[in-house]
Write a structure and sequence with these properties.
The chain is mainly alpha-helical. The chain is built from seven helices and two strands. Helix content is about 55%, strand content about 5%. Helix 2 packs across helix 7. The relative contact order is 0.15. The structure holds zinc ion (ZN).
Length: about 140
């Protein structure tokens, strides 16, 4: 009985601290990446921008890693462009952008990290909180 009451009391603050769903984190992180870059980094357009993951977003440790993500326009440069050139032009671009050392670090994370999705989401929330401290969902 006592426990039930405690949970009721804490419910509002607990809700605020709850981790985002994966899809919510994807949306917010994508917004942040697109705001950071402002244009397609391959062709320069500002239309139909998407967040492109160099190493697959299925790897939780790199799903919300800013260094693993760049803005590309949806079709020409993302789906029909660099998505198909991850061992070619896209790779060359990432090595140029990050430096070989950081590129290798991310590659190591890709093959070795055991970060869970929940840990990754919490990392994403922390990152975006630092980037956008005034966003409504972080207000107390
Ligand atoms: Zn483009």
């Amino acid at each position: 009985m006592k426990k039930k009451k405690k949970i009721k009391h804490k419910s509002i603050s607990t809700l605020k601290k709850k981790a985002w769903s994966s899809s919510k984190a994807d949306i917010e992180f994508s917004k942040w990446i697109r705001a950071r870059d402002g244009r397609c980094l391959r062709c320069g357009t500002t239309a139909q921008l998407t967040n492109s993951h160099f190493w697959s977003r299925n790897k939780s440790a790199l799903r919300y890693e800013p260094d693993n993500c760049i803005t590309l326009c949806a079709w020409k440069c993302h789906i029909y462009g660099w998505e198909k050139e991850k061992q070619g032009a896209y790779r060359d671009f990432m090595i140029q952008r990050l430096g070989q050392e950081r590129y290798d670090e991310l590659q190591k994370i890709y093959y070795q990290s055991n970060t869970t999705r929940l840990e990754a989401i919490k990392g994403c929330m922390k990152l975006l909180k630092c980037a956008y401290p005034t966003l409504h969902y972080f207000k107390k």
